């Protein structure tokens, strides 16, 4: 693993947001969920496609806070424009477990 400087870390915008809508992603190659995440007034609502179907269903994600990188360029995933990268870590079988704040925080709050 290559070390980075604190200045490198500061370039990554990791923000808290609340999922306001979630739908199955029918055109993705791998099972995925389309997410619409509210990051507050400064950033607004952004979209993400996430391979999180092992532990999560769309209806149970709405209202949940997540952490995401908001300053990557958008990517098209199965015809859907994903604007942010939702963060997670693998469980013992490699399935994604989402990262979230331990307590409710304002949407758009920057991780430091």
UniProtKB/TrEMBL annotation:
Residues 8-112 form the TRNA-binding domain. The keyword tRNA-binding applies. PROSITE patterns: TRBD. The keyword Transport does not apply. One of its GO terms (molecular function) is tRNA binding. SUPFAM superfamilies: Nucleic acid-binding proteins (SSF50249). Keywords: RNA-binding, tRNA-binding. CDD domains: tRNA_bind_CsaA. InterPro entries: CsaA, NA-bd_OB-fold, tRNA-bd_dom, Tyrosine-tRNA_ligase_regulator. It comes from the Bacteria. This is tRNA-binding protein. The lineage of its organism: Bacteria, Pseudomonadati, Pseudomonadota, Alphaproteobacteria, Acetobacterales.
């Amino acid at each position: 693993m290559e070390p980075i400087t604190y200045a490198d870390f500061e370039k990554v915008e990791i923000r808290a947001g609340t999922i306001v809508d979630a739908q199955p992603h029918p055109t993705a190659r791998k099972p995925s969920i389309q997410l619409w995440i509210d990051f507050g007034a400064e950033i607004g609502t952004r979209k993400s496609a996430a391979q999180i179907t092992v532990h999560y269903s769309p209806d149970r994600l709405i209202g949940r806070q997540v952490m995401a990188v908001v300053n990557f360029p958008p990517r098209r995933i199965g015809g859907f424009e994903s604007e942010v990268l939702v963060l997670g870590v693998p469980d013992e079988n490699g399935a994604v477990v989402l990262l979230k704040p331990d307590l409710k925080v304002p949407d758009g709050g920057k991780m430091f």
